[in-house]
Amino acid sequence: MALAEVPNLIPALPELFMAVAAMALLMLGAFHDRSTEKEANKAARLVLYLSVLALGLATLLLVMVPDGRVVAFNGLFVTDPFATFFKVLVLLASGLALIISRDYLERQGVARFEYGVLMMFATLGMMMMVSANDLISLYVGLEMQSLSLYVIAAFQREDPRSTEAGLKYFVLGALASGMMLYGASLIYGFTGATGFDALAAHFEGANGHAPPLGLVIGLVFLLAGLAFKISAAPFHMWTPDVYEGAPTPVTAFFSVGPKLAAMALLLRVVMGPFGELAEQWQQVVVLVAILSMFVGAFAALVQKNIKRLMAYSSIGHAGYALIGVAAGGASGIKGVLIYLAIYLFMNLGAFAVILTMRRGERMVEGINDLAGLSKTNPMLALAMALFMFSMAGIPPLAGFFGKFYIFLAAMEAELYGLAIIGVLTSVVGAFYYIRIIKVMYFDEPTEAFDGPVAPEVKGVLLFTSLVVAFFFLYPSLVLSGAAAAAAALLGG
Questions:
Q1: On the chain, which terminus has fewer CB atoms closer than 10 Å, C or N?
Q2: What's the pTM?
């Protein structure tokens, strides 16, 4: 092969490393002695820790990727500061989710080496989604992520709830994938292109002419598939059941990782190839944002299971993030990026607390099981209170800044009605967050949680608590990165 024909692999170096590392860990786990439960646990622990190490090395490789916008693989793959920002968040979410998984998997007797490998492949799919520059690479990355997540959801296969969660996620996920493929085929049929750059050029050359109805329908189907992946209403029906049934560390991962990747993909799609069709997609995004905020706020009020409550909470947060997408422009994109970065720490921290809710070998998930936690474990109650107040948007915690930048972007874009609905649903949402604090601090203690908190969970709790509590002291790290990423997306 001539040297000129060798593809430039440097932009995809982190993804290539992740693929090689995942396959190497698969072989390591397969050939490791697993004849006894103790040896199986040892193999699972080794693969899990090496997976965390591989995620850390992939993050370092991101620094080696050239600055600016670089397109590779005949336009299928793009890397820029926007992609780097989201990839760092995805790798961080995956690493933290893996760290808090070890103790849970061993206690529940489901410590298998495949867990770490599947998380690696899911993360690789998310990174490919973030860097997709074509409808084909978009779908390949999304399916690599989804196929791994279907298995992880049902990882606790002896538990009927876990297998049910995996089955529901698979069936509805396949439906969403079909919708996306149908939308992509319509877009290709009406434009003759699948590459984002070619699609952008096609719409710029339309000279303001209204797009064909079939093309708009294709775009709506594509947006519907992406809305499913971020669990936005009315495509949220899978979320509460899957969050409740899946193993708790898997639920923690579901609540942040796939949401980050899908939101990055949504931003790249609507701001890049379909930027000229803002009038068509903006009204869809506004409607989905309003529905998500309402469903997230009001459906959570009656929940008694804390994992289901967190599921509806995540639907509401998807709605808030979509306000920034609807606002568009540099301030809207920057608001989404800041919001998602902060959401990552709040949510993973809250799930780390949920992982400590154990009596004997039984995990408890009722909100009332937190009763009197401030008396039986004051530090755990303080951490949970921090996360709940932050999710409610109480200053000076990090969650306040997330909502501030989102609502600011909506006001600048003159989406006043959307901003008002966002504020009102935030007030409703604050009720169920504060209800958890009331249960922890004012209800009489029931039975205390058993055993010491695993050191890995303690570490993640401390890290996320510090970020949420003291974000206001040094916000520029996230704000400047978000501003650079937003500028790169609009300039690309």
A1: N
A2: 0.94
